[in-house]
Amino acid sequence: MGKRQAGLPPLPASVNRRARLRTIGLVLVVALLPGTAFTDEAWELGIQPFASPQALFQRYAPLREWLADLRQAPVHLEASRDFPRFIERLSEERYDVAIVAPHVVPLLGETSAYRPIARSRDTLAMIIVAPVDAPPRQLTDLEDATLATPARHSLGTRLARERIRAVFDTEDPPIHYLEFPHHNAAAAAMQRGLAEAAVLVIDARALESPRSPQEGPRTIALADGSLARILAQSDPFPGVTIVLHERVQTNDLDLQTQLLELSSTTSGQQRLRAFGHSRGFEPASPEDYEAFRSLPPDH
Known about the structure:
Strands 5, 6, 7, 8, 9, 10 and 11 form a 7-stranded mixed β-sheet that branches. The protein contains 8 helices and 13 strands. By secondary structure, the protein is an alpha/beta fold. It has 2 domains: 43-121 and 239-294, Periplasmic binding protein-like II (D-Maltodextrin-Binding Protein, domain 2); 123-237, D-Maltodextrin-Binding Protein, domain 2 (3-Layer(aba) Sandwich), CATH 3.40.190. It has helices at 13-31, 53-71, 83-91, 104-107, 155-168, 183-191, 255-260, 266-275, and strands at 43-47, 75-79, 97-100, 114-120, 123-131, 146-149, 176-179, 197-203, 219-221, 227-233, 237-238, 241-245, 281-283. 30% of the residues lie in helices and 22% in strands. β1 (43-47), α2 (53-71) and β2 form a beta-alpha-beta unit.
């Protein structure tokens, strides 16, 4: 007779079935624990195209990674090539979460599947600038001149056009608009001599209070270090808003609370700096955006 193989005898089939059932039950319990992913479905994170796609991907990659860690599931980052395509994708409900400018929230409509949940505490402002050594000293000096602007649908351009119409007191002011995808490209066009002035959107904290031309020029340093003269500026307005689709608005992942609480911890503050929104977020609701309904339509 051969030697008997060492080891425990096989378990009866009934015991094996009970073990399998216990294992399945344990997996279900773990799946229901807080912080555990409920689905492997990827989220689509849409970014309004207020800069080049490369710049947007670099800036918001840390936010995408944070959301993926929070969900324990994939998050894809997408930037549309232009504003109309972005709005079209929102209307198609392509995105689960999106980052939009404040004037986009009223465009979504009262019956939209998207709800604003948080807005950055950043305050921005539109400015119209000209090279510091160029002739324009005030907005009326731009008559028959070329003004480089971001895309006509952007908030900066809409505020600039509203200001120019008011100064020239006409719906058809004598200014030639030269449109670019974003304000960095508009500034570059001005610096290359393609336009006499440009529209930019900047951190409102960098601006002094408006003053008359007789008090001397107000200047601002551009990205390349050169100085530009400020011809006009808007009132400050809120920074970006995060909107969430109703299909992912569940109590299991309270994204609004997660965003608001980032500023309360050191690690959260580090994340906010990585997101490019170091001042953190505050709650947002549709009522906060009523003022943007009065903006004139795009032309």
